[in-house]
Write a structure and sequence with these properties.
Blueprint: E1 2-11, H1 15-33, E2 36-42, H2 47-53, H3 61-66, E3 70-75, H4 83-97, E4 102-108, E5 126-132, E6 136-145, E7 153-159, H5 162-178, E8 183-188, H6 196-208, E9 215-220, H7 221-230, E10 237-240, H8 242-255, E11 263-267, E12 275-279, H9 296-309, H10 312-327, H11 341-353
Parallel strand pairs: 1-2, 1-3, 3-12, 5-10, 8-9, 8-10
Antiparallel strand pairs: 4-5, 4-11, 6-7, 11-12
Helix pairs in contact: 1-11, 5-6, 7-8, 9-10, 10-11
The structure holds nicotinamide-adenine-dinucleotide (NAD) and manganese (II) ion (MN).
Manganese (II) ion binds at residues 246, 250.
Length: 357
């Protein structure tokens, strides 16, 4: 029997609530399938740790994580710590340190959950957004000259490399090729941004030649937001820069009903390091401790983790269980229900144990 070593980093806000839910579902799946077990180690790396010790994670944090098969991450961010400190202190060092360059964000409308778009239901919106996750606008380069002075200048430098763009483009074309519609939309802002973005367009055209069976088109990111709202059926697989895809995928989550149902996987496709799986949402201070955080995004990302580990049957079973529970309208208030996190979790675990799932 296979044992997967999972590093759980629940971190802040509702992170611990949704990670606890996700671990219960993983446990139920392991019991039901009998083919694998999960060996979970929890890390207390968080904003609380930062307030206690001055660092969100220890200096040798990446070394500690290296031995694991996957990382299961909650959310980071606290009301009394600046967001750039929490993001750069925990999540980005893991993504960038382990070169998890492909950030994969599937979106679809679950049965029982309604989209804010009228006349759009399950099946009408079925996208995967591929976000470049290692460079671009989040390269961390820039600075502030004459800080605090009237003549202050702040720069925020986006760095795009041929290697970085080519590998994410290949990943996206390959993913599009594996999906039934074999259709990719490449998003840039290459009218206003003349260098890195024009290079994206050129590299897309080059890489497309390796995938003659994939149809593709190009969009400017501003027009893309309109297309997502007005013509969601026209989209399938989407690739965009670190910043653009960050924004587009929050929109996608909202169009699918709630940020609470949107998952994300930070993948090292070459499997040199562990990949990291997390819900898209943040620590949601407004609902922390109320027991009503939607665990669906975390279940879905647990399914992405199982898929990545090669447990495809368990991944599919988990998704069927989640869809059944959504269709039964056992859901949290953010998607119009009145169930608690634990009630949704219990229903999903029951469904996993059920005969027909
Ligand atoms: P957020 O995602 O935490 O919350 C936005 C809104 O969505 C809130 O109203 C919240 O209640 C709701 N929401 C989010 N997840 C939900 C869930 N599972 N169930 C029900 N409702 C849910 O974003 P924010 O308010 O902009 O940020 C809060 C903190 O989280 C900030 O410190 C921010 O930096 C951080 N953040 C972290 C991550 C991450 O760890 N990956 C991502 C985004 C934001
Ligand atoms: Mn985001």
């Amino acid at each position: 029997m296979k044992t997967y070593r999972i590093a759980a980093i629940p971190a802040d806000g509702i992170g611990p609530e949704v990670i606890a839910a996700g671990l219960q579902a993983l446990e139920a799946l392991a019991r039901r399938d009998g083919g694998f077990t999960v060996d979970v180690t929890e890390f207390d790396w968080s904003s609380d740790r930062y307030k206690r010790t001055g660092a969100l994670m220890p200096e040798d944090g990446l070394d500690q994580l290296k031995a694991f098969d996957a990382i299961f991450f909650g959310a980071v961010g606290a009301p009394d710590v600046p967001d750039h400190i929490t993001l750069w202190g925990l999540r980005l060092p893991i993504c960038q340190g382990f070169d998890q360059y492909a950030n994969v964000r599937p979106t679809k409308i679950m049965p029982g959950i309604s989209s804010p778009l009228s006349n759009v239901g399950p099946g009408d919106l079925d996208w995967v957004i591929v976000r470049e996750n290692s460079e671009g606008e989040y390269s961390g380069h820039g600075g502030r000259a004459h800080k605090g002075m009237p003549e202050e200048v702040g720069t925020e430098v986006a760095i795009f490399t041929r290697v970085g763009v080519t590998r994410i483009m290949r990943y996206a074309f390959r993913l599009a090729q594996a999906r039934p519609r074999k259709f990719l939309t490449v998003v840039t802002k290459s009218n206003a941004q003349r260098f890195g973005m024009v290079m994206w367009d050129e590299i897309a055209a080059e890489v497309s030649k390796e995938f003659p069976d994939v149809t593709w088109d190009k969009m400017l990111v501003d027009a893309m937001t309109v297309r997502m709202v007005k013509d969601p059926r026209s989209l399938d697989t989407i690739v965009a820069t670190n910043l653009h895809a960050d924004i587009l995928s929050d929109l996608a989550g909202a169009l699918a009903g709630s940020l609470g149902v949107a998952p994300t996987a930070n993948i090292d496709p070459e499997r040199r390091y562990p990949s990291m799986f997390e819900p898209i949402h943040g620590s949601a201070f407004d609902i922390t401790g109320k027991g009503i955080a939607n665990p669906v995004a975390t279940f879905w990302t647990a399914a992405q983790m199982l898929e990545h580990l090669g447990e495809t049957a368990a991944a599919a079973r988990l998704m069927r269980a989640v869809e059944k529970v959504c269709a039964d309208r056992v859901m949290t208030p953010d998607v119009g229900g009145d169930a608690t996190t634990q009630q949704v979790t219990d229903a999903v675990c029951d469904a996993i144990r059920g005969e027909n799932i």
